[in-house]
Amino acid sequence: MNSSKTNPPTFQELILRLQTFWAERGCVLQQPYDVEVGAGTMAPETFLRVLGPKPYKVAYVQPSRRPADGRYGENPNRLYKHMQLQVILKPPPEDMQELYLQSLSAMGIHLRQHDIKFEEDNWESPTLGAWGIGWQVMLDGLEITQFTYFQQCGGVDLFPISAELTYGLERIAAFLQDVDSIYDIAWARDPETGQVTTYADVRLAEEQQFSVYNFEAADVEKTWKHFELCESECKKLLEGYAALQKEKRATDGLARDRARFPMLAAYDLCLKCSHLFNILDARGAISVTERVGVIARVRSLAVGITKAYLDQQGGGKSVAQHDMIKAVPKPPRAAKSKKVTVTS
Amino acid sequence: MPDFLLEIGCEEIPARMIDAGSQELEKRVNDLLSRERLAPAQTIIHLDTPRRLAILAPGIPAAQPDITEKVTGPSVSVSFKDGQPTPAAQAFAKKAGIDVSRLERITTPKGEYLAATVRKKGRAASEILAEFLPKEIASIYWPKNMYWRKPNERFVRPVRWLVAMLDDEVIQLEFDGILAGHQTRGHRILAKSEISIPRAGAAYIQALERTKVLGRDAREQQIRKGLDAATRAIAGARWREDKVLIDTVVNLTEFPSVILGNFDGEFLELPEEVLVTVMRDHQKYFAVEDANGKLAPHFLAVLNTDGDPEGIIRHGHERVLRARFNDARFFWQTDQKIPLRERVQLLKHVTFQKDLGSYYEKTLRVQRLCSWLSEIVRQSGIAVRPGVVHKAACLAKADLTTELVKEFTELQGIVGGLYARVQQLDPDMPESTRLAIADAIYDQYKPESVEDSVPRTIEGAVLSIGDKSDSISGMFSLGLQPTGSRDPFALRRQANGIVKIIAEHKLPLSLGQLCTDAREAYRGSEAEKKFSGKVDYDRSLREFFRERLEFFLRDVRGFAYDVVKAVLASDADDIVDAIARAEAVTKARPSQDFESISIAFKRIKNILRQASEAGKKIADGIDPSAFQEQAERDLASAIPETAQKVESLRRTRNYEQALIEISKLRPAVDRYFDKVMVMVEDERTRASRLALLQTLLNEFSTIADFSEIVTEGKESRGPKESNKQ
User: Fold this and answer.
1) Which domains does chain A have, with CATH numbers?
2) Considering only alpha carbons, which residue of chain A is nearest residue B403?
3) Do the beta carbons of residue A261 and residue A243 sit within 8 Å?
């Protein structure tokens, strides 16, 4: 019954259409980040790129892992790992919303035949000291995109701000193809034989096995150890950078040491901590009293990295001195804080 | 007199914020126009949609009227030297724009000064509006705002266009980098992107209508009509009125239409509460009921477009709802695998509040508190089943661990009640007991608002009170009481709930005792170690509940402000009693005698206050030997007799009759004030007279403090205290 029923795009065609659309509008097409993240926002192409003054446009697919959301491949609408297509436009153009609507047309949605609403939905991640203002975009009652104007990251007011679009690819594909289960989505269609490879063919085993791992098999003690190892290494790096910040050597060597300091590696370690926390959480291994404390530990890494990264980008000028950016102590409470988890 | 139009074009403003924002803009523009002497000839109107806030002011002056004002200059003494104007006088004349010879002299308390009558030319309206409107727009309050260009430019959502016109002239207005023009934008999908407005006034509204944009009232009308029309397709069916949902969809659309969708009748096996929540809260659909009031397998969706001729949109909405209902059914079935009684242990992993511990700990406290409360209720002769309360309190929070509540948090309590209804709670438990427990769990969060009903049963009432008191007590002990507009734990709402439940179920629970008991339930707990030593628990809670009770009596029960104050001045602890007293006072109030008594009590209070301020002694008791006037003897002898009657009537809560008895004192009191001067020189007489007044006040203020009753300007009846004798 869909408008594009005659020729709905396969899952991979959907991705290609969106990527082409955004590439034609000047976006760098990045590849998925290869460290586990809970949301496209956490990939460095978003989280770190939105910091600082430098304009940037990027689009990428990001597999997002939320261990607690796994359903052993038995639920038609829920996944442990789902795909987001993430677009960052920094700064956002004035016709941001119109561009977004055009991208829907590019997917094969005839806007005139549908009901589109922008409903308030603000995004907040206390863990990352990040929040933004925006909407969930509803297409015939289905939430297809999160549209956010970032305001703060790592507790710092952003300037310029970025617009973030997060397309839920499985939902959109299921909608376009008019199937009731994600697993029935046609991922690819062989142009010669017409043979269809479904989402289940590609991903079902992964959903089953990782659900078992996350809920049953993950070794709690060892996962804790992984967490602690990643955390301590991340901390060590942050301390290393702090020591460089204090140094007074007036040579080019110091600037070079700062510029090539592996802050990106520190961020990877922080992401690993976040994912390991999520596994422990899904495993039911984190008690009430521990939970708050562990989240605070991940946050302190993320906030430390944000500050250090900004310093690094600003060529050693501290955040406070940076004339474009003001440090703000606390993000205000969001009206809705749906996505308040350690992952997203 | 040109018409003025302002339109702020935005990206979609949150539905919940549009009405208040639009009204505030109207008020600000209205105030600005009056302040600047540009008041419109006709009433200003506002027009708002998710993408625009607009103001139309019909017929405002093209310019401010000129005004003449007198300006004061330097003093005469410095203005002339040897009869000649000094530079000071010349400078002033120049500034005022007139010749020195035309300067006037005025006398002020500081001496004689120069003055000039100056005619000030009014500025053009366009100039004034361009200067002041940006500040007004920027000052609108939004619950949450943002910046998109520069951090100091804030609004609820990015502003993308501005229209500001006086008739057909564009006003040179700039806001956040946007320059006003005469181009507006129509409906996102149904109109081409930009259209030109020929002139301010009716032409604007017509232009919007042509581009499929309707004002608020027109949208609401179109939605209601659409709901009616779509429902007619099903014989005997009705859509369920829901004002909150109407307001939401009105503010999510610029051009609404309504479609009827269907869902599989199989889903009707799920409880109606679950289905309606999914439809209303998650999908913003209206539920449809059949002729018997039962939920029918249909829904109504409000679209932001002009229709769905091919059924494409309907198909999409049905698909989403099917997935949502399937989820709900899956959760329902999964949840049954672990019964509620086993889930209680799982509550150890669910945080209630970081310092107050887990929901498991809360469960134990509420159970303990509820058993004390049940006992008080039982002893007063009200039929209550403590066993039911105890078990319900044990299972009350168990549904927080269910998938259904994790997905639909607004169904907490309701889900627990529904599960208790279908699960075996105890092998030997009779069904009636189980159902009573289920009802108490189901109703535990009631009332959720001032309008909401209270728990249906006494057991549910006790559980709800226990649960809410525990939260309030814990938060206050931590020093987390509400301040100003901040009440993150909704403690005011919970306290309002307690007051309403006690009032409606007529429970013999004292607020003071309730707070003490709730605090007692924390004794020896881990949480207690986190309690703040700085909090004056009893005092802060007493004040907090007193405010809630005042609010309830006034705004919910509609008692007059002064009656509420009078009644609560006597006692604010026993809610049921306070209501009975307020009713009696309200009834007695119109009588002449009662009004006289109120005036007299005000006077008594004043005299006693003045006496105490002046350090005058009040005798310990009435001393008949000090009496000199018959009037005071009469009053003194009337007091004990009346007091006895009043007290026995009061004890049986026959307040109406008690007030009549008090009113009967009027002649004696009136005569007393006619004949007797209290504040006489003689200390003994004065002290005794003061004691008489004090006794009168003490004896007869137990039902209400009559001095709080507002009497209509008749205070001056009778000679004044100082004019007597």
Assistant:
1) 11-215 (3.30.930.10), 219-313 (1.20.58.180)
2) A69
3) no
